Amino acid sequence: MNVLQKTGAQIRKIRKFKGLSQEALAERADLHYVYIGGMERGERNITLLNLEKIARALEVELQELFRFNASDIEDEEITEAILATLECRSTEDKRRILQIINLIPQNATKKETD
């Protein structure tokens, strides 16, 4: 899956989570619904300006459009993605996230990697 397909899939996932149709997203972003469909299928090379419009229309930060499925990336990339995500979080958020991570049994993690 290339970056256009991954970005389009992420936008589709967020759009559906928010309960929006392609037409509703297109209207909010001041884009054509055919463009939204092509973008979600990875058929369009999306401009940065249009990505910004889509992020605003979805009411998410721009970087959320690039948070791809962890199964598509390797272990080292996962670690880098986690660290990059944490950089923009508050200290309180980081504490909460650490508490959540510590709730995951270590033997469950070992089974997944075996």
CATH class of the largest domain: Mainly Alpha
Content of β-strand:
under 5%
Secondary-structure-derived class: mainly alpha
Gyration radius, rounded: 17 Å
- Could you give the distance between the termini? 25 Å
Q: Give a quick account of the main beta sheet: strands, pairing sense, barrel closure.
A: none
Low-confidence runs of at least 5 consecutive residues: none
CATH architecture of the largest domain: Orthogonal Bundle
CATH topology of the largest domain, which one? 434 Repressor (Amino-terminal Domain)
What is the molecular shape? Answer: elongated
- The total of beta strands comes to 0
Number of helices: 7
Helix share, percent: 55-70%
Can you identify the CATH superfamily of the largest domain? lambda repressor-like DNA-binding domains
Mean pLDDT: 84
| Count of domain modules | 2
Give the SSE order as H and E letters.
HHHHHHH
